[in-house]
From TrEMBL:
Its EC number is 3.1.3.57, 3.1.3.7. It comes from the Eukaryota. Belongs to the inositol monophosphatase superfamily. Keywords: Acetylation, Hydrolase, Lithium, Magnesium, Metal-binding, Phosphoprotein. This is 3'(2'),5'-bisphosphate nucleotidase 1. The keyword Magnesium applies. Pfam families: Inositol_P.
């Protein structure tokens, strides 16, 4: 073999740089105050200018370098020429230096599917933007809890926002990049904003400090804005000591890998493949697990339906315990696909 990095490593290295570019776009649009919001299916399903520009940037950048890869993005956008300033050509050098797991060293572009959520947590992003327009400096303690902050200090919602790029092979999520554009926002003026995490099966995960959840209590993270009786019944059945309600699938997985939550429980068909491909890969890379509420794995082939119709259950450990706690009523309502 030559000294050139394997295709998958070059793709992940590109996805890392592209996610950072998308994160910068997300920040720029917020600071402009012109979000260009449209409702896709209702008030809880929004699209902003940041969603549109970030997806254009991600898809155009990756497709130029890897033209035969299938890329599936959340936003339905018209076919149009993408501005050159949105294209990112860089690749993360640290990733290029990593040794590719042998089972992925010979993968071709045609075998890979990339799932893109250009702005996960759009609702929270729009709410934080309203606060941002009226308050230029807000100091908020970074406690990880989201249940007691008043609306007037809604900038804490920026923690909920992520950019997700997941890579699948053979229907399985094998690598993922998560950019958190507003990480460190609470440190105020002069702080370096944003961080990018990534993970790959057989290699591990990078860009954050992995921490186990507490041994002495169950902390469940679940949806902030898409709840219903099925969701609350399932959360209650876990007998949690604490419930953290936050936005964004990416943010909930970060809660798990940083030890702030024991399980991510969402007994609803609201999540899509672009929400879970990157997050599942990152979680699985550190020994965690993401399944539907029945304990079955999702597939990420190019031709699968986008909806995760049987809900999402994710843990860093003790996954079978949480699967065993899912009520029969939830299992009957959410048929495994």
């Amino acid at each position: 073999m030559s000294g050139s990095p394997a295709l998958i490593m070059r793709l992940v290295a590109s996805a890392f740089s592209v996610a950072e570019k998308a994160g910068n776009i997300v920040r720029t649009v917020l600071h402009s105050g012109e979000l260009g919001i449209v409702e896709k299916t209702g008030a809880n399903d929004l699209q902003t200018l940041a969603d549109r520009l970030a997806q254009q940037s991600i898809c155009a950048s990756l497709s130029r370098r890897f033209p035969k890869i299938t890329i599936i993005g959340e936003e339905e956008l018209p076919c149009e020429e993408v501005r050159e300033d949105l294209v990112e050509n860089g690749q993360n050098e640290e990733i290029l230096q990593k040794k590719c797991p042998p089972e992925y060293s010979e993968l071709t572009e045609e075998e890979l599917v990339v799932w893109v959520d250009p702005l996960d947590g759009t609702k929270e992003y729009t709410e934080a933007s309203r606060c941002h327009r009226h308050q230029t400096e807000v100091q908020i303690p970074h406690t990880g809890s989201v249940v007691t902050q008043p609306h007037s200090t809604a900038l804490w919602l920026l923690d909920n926002v992520t950019v997700l790029i997941g890579i699948a092979y053979g229907g399985r999520a094998i690598a993922g990049v998560i950019n958190q554009p507003f990480y460190n926002y609470q440190l105020g003026t002069g702080a370096t904003l944003g961080r990018t995490m990534w993970g790959m099966l057989g290699l591990g995960a990078f860009g954050f400090k992995l921490q186990n959840p507490p041994d002495d209590k169950r902390i469940v993270t679940t949806t902030r804005s898409h709840s219903n009786k099925l969701v609350t019944d399932c959360v209650d059945a876990m007998e949690p000591h604490e419930v953290i309600r936050v936005g964004g699938a990416g943010n909930k997985i970060i809660q798990l890998v940083e030890g702030k939550a024991s399980a991510y429980v969402f007994a609803s068909p609201g999540c899509k493949k672009w929400d879970t491909c990157a997050t599942e890969a990152l979680l699985h890379a550190v020994g965690g697990k993401l399944t539907d509420m029945h304990g079955n794995a999702y597939r990420y082939d190019a031709n699968v339906k986008y909806m995760n119709s049987a809900g999402v259950l994710a843990t860093l450990r003790n996954h079978e315990y949480y699967v065993s706690r899912v009520p029969q009523s939830v299992l009957q309502a959410l048929k495994s696909s």
